[in-house]
Amino acid sequence: MVSNFKYYWEDFVAGQAKEFGGIQVSEEDILNFAKVYDPQSFHVNKEAAEQTIFKGLIASGWQTCAFMMRMICDDYLLDSSSQGSPGLDFVKWLKPVRPGDTLRVRSTVLDTRVMNSKPHLGIVKLSWECLNQTNEVVTTMQGSLIFIKRNSTPA
Predict the structure, then answer these.
(1) Is the dihedral of CA 80, 81, 83, 86 positive or negative?
(2) Is 77 exposed, middle or buried, given 0-12, 13-18 or 19+ CB atoms closer than 10 A?
(3) Domain annotation for the chain: domains and CATH numbers
(4) What pLDDT digit, counting tens, does each position of 138-150 carry?
(5) Stretch (H or E) spanning 12
(6) Are 68 and 131 in contact (CB under 8 A)?
(7) Residue 141 and residue 20: Cα distance in Å, rounded?
(8) What's the pLDDT tens digit per position in 35-82?
């Protein structure tokens, strides 16, 4: 029997939605991440970024995903029976994230099912939207997470 988690597979119900988080993005955050992971000019050079279609420095889309993952972890994933993810169905970057933006996540449960091959585990399909301080959706992702079922025993 598995215990000591706040959230199990059963705690995720199709249609369930909630918003959480609140990370303020600084210019330093953008520059530091981009220098290491995505050194395109519009992420690492303020002057060069002014000459692009973005007309200024923006965060890497991958950094926005990392911010989202941090907020997801802080809100529920670290307190859950999560066993990881088989992957994302898609990720879309809809609007640039700029220095000074404050980001939060809207998480919606799309579907849940028990795994046929491992009935002590369940899959939760989720949609995540990242919103900025003016309620614009800047990034959207969809994927699945695997959770242990409450009071289950591995086969």
Answers:
(1) negative
(2) middle
(3) 13-148 (3.10.129.10)
(4) 999 999 999 999 9
(5) none
(6) no
(7) 16
(8) 999 999 999 999 999 999 999 999 999 999 999 999 999 999 999 999
